[in-house]
Amino acid sequence: MAALQRIKGTNDILPDHLGSGIFRLGLWHRLEETALRVAALSGYHEIRTPIFESTELFVRGLGDVTDVVKKEMFSFTDRGERQLTLRPEGTASIVRAWIENGIGNSDSVARLAYLGPMFRAERPQKGRYRQFHQFGIECIGGAEVRHDIEVIAVFWNIIRTLGVHAVSLKINSVGCPTCIPRYREVLRAHFEPSLKDLCGDCSERHKTNVLRMLDCKNPACQDILSSAPPLTDYLCEECAAAWAGLRHGLDLLQIPWQHDTRLVRGLDYYTKTAFEIVHEAIGAQGTIVGGGRYDGLVAASGGPAVPAVGGAFGVERMLLAMQAEDPTLPLRERPRFFLVQIGDEVDDDIERLLFELRLHGIHALRADGSRQLGKQMRAAAKLASREVVFVGGQEWNSGTLLIKDMDSGEQESIVVGSYGVLACLLKRAGIER
Ligand code: AMP
User: Is 90 in the pocket of ligand 1 (CB under 6 A)?
Assistant: First the structure.
């Protein structure tokens, strides 16, 4: 029978020594731990919400003219005739959970972080998957521009801590319900004469969501789209002050930024600040982080009129960026000792030693299968073991431990004496008893 395969656009993430590229779990753990730890430095703590929610939640939260809702959701009807959707992003669920759990009542500014799989039926390519993963933070109740800056700074800090440097931060303001209607009219009028030269998507968006025209990636449309007057020229007083405050705050922290007049974000509930962090060397799907302020979402989701700001990065894309900058990314946890067995009679010794080392928290392994020396050494190398300990043989029988450093290739003999093998190895691993 033919073996079944994984669904296109999904990935298996394997243990380090079995996987390749970004699909090695040690890299994921490192990224996840770093992101959660750095976010916690600013008071953001993890929340976990279900992977599927009612379809309605995303339609309301994202707006039914966005690409995500129109074309990309994995939706299904369950046995109870409920319309459900695998979450395409995190914010709508976090806001729902914030309302449903009364988080807003106990804490006026809630700082939440999330991490997990998201699902979008996009055309898969490098950096774009149907099941991908996001790490995001949301600052719900954060009304001030310093909250926008705080969110950007958290992402900036995570990126730096992960050793990624070739990034640029793009910012824009997308206004608010006071100023955006006027700008929409300006844009509509501006593009009206050129519609015949623009693509079908642009014509469609001219009618339904004119702001999204600025987002079009079609090369043939770029010249005309770039001629649009910048949105920041049309901001109301409040949005203009926030826009100035944002730039001032980023300058203060010496986070370099570029004004991207065409940055409008794909989702409907964004107001004021919009930002993206783009990596220069990971190809077409170079946007790692996206986020902004969404003052309209909480109320649109049936909650109180509470402002909020947040953002998210794609885990796969962040890993591609890490790898682009450091192709030799070290694996996370190398076995400290690999015990190589010489002779059948030491089988029990090895098993007991392994057990005791692990009781002391030491990562220690042995080979499966063949007891042939060469095969055991290859297994040790494949797992990137730091040191091989030879158990059995002449030295062992005469009270000497033979240890090989797998990085330098050097061998060392240690007299065990009355100390005992376990104590010797623990001492070597930095554990004193
Ligand atoms: P968005 O929710 O669309 O603002 O996306 C935020 C970030 O999630 C993007 O900048 C990407 O890093 C990542 N992302 C979005 N869609 C995908 C996808 N289909 N595959 C991989 N990463 C994605």
Answer: no
